Task: inverse folding
């Protein structure tokens, strides 16, 4: 989880600012509106200091994984779009050094249909089981 926080925490101070949160969304090709950033900050910044600390980040992600709403899952699915080129683009935007071949392997592990794609149902099942795409690597 700390490695994921580092993707958001551009200046390495151990906490996420509004600007860092917005920049991370933009880096994966999905610019968040000021309202979306404000909502995320409000939900995650439980101590009200204007930052998301590591503890708050973990708590927000555990809560999200435990009770992720269908709408949130559809939004996440839309960011990845679940094909190898889009997955490659998203991971590259996050600074991951995955190849297109590795992305295809991740999709093959998650996708049950053998069609080289991940359906929304497969994505939802993967996320609810807590595997995430990063854990789908072979």
Result:
């Amino acid at each position: 989880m700390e490695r994921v926080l580092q993707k958001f925490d551009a200046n390495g101070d151990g906490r996420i600012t509004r600007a860092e949160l917005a920049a991370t969304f933009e880096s994966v090709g999905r610019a968040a509106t000021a309202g979306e950033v404000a909502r995320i900050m409000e939900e995650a910044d439980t101590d009200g200091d204007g930052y998301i600390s590591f503890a708050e980040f973990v708590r927000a992600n555990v809560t999200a994984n435990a009770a992720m709403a269908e709408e949130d899952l559809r939004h996440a699915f839309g960011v990845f779009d679940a094909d190898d080129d889009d997955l490659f683009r998203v991971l590259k935007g996050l600074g991951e050094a995955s190849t297109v071949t590795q992305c295809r392997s991740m999709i093959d592990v998650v996708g049950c249909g053998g069609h080289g794609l991940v359906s929304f149902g497969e994505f939802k099942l993967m996320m609810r089981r807590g595997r995430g795409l990063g854990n789908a690597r072979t």
